[in-house]
Fold this sequence. Notes:
Blueprint: E1 5-14, E2 19-24, E3 27-32, E4 46-50, E5 53-58, H1 60-71, H2 75-86
Amino acid sequence: MCLGIPGQLVEIVDVDQHLAKVDVSGVRRTISIRLVAEEGPRVGDWVLVHVGFAMAKIDEVEAMRTLEAVEKLGQAYLDEVEAFGSSATP
């Protein structure tokens, strides 16, 4: 199962390549923010992350609601967070 999981941008790693470090449930990884570049993502923003890409900027309330919902998936959610942490950077 592949989920879109909320993550918070903690560092812009490479502006030209549209790479940023995101924190997803305590796991930090560099992802592509190219798809949300026009929205001007900044450190502290929340994004919906799927397969190493920020798919959309979301507000903190939506992020918290989504995290609450996906955490209820139990093992599927834990597997997704583990896969997120171990997958390669785009």
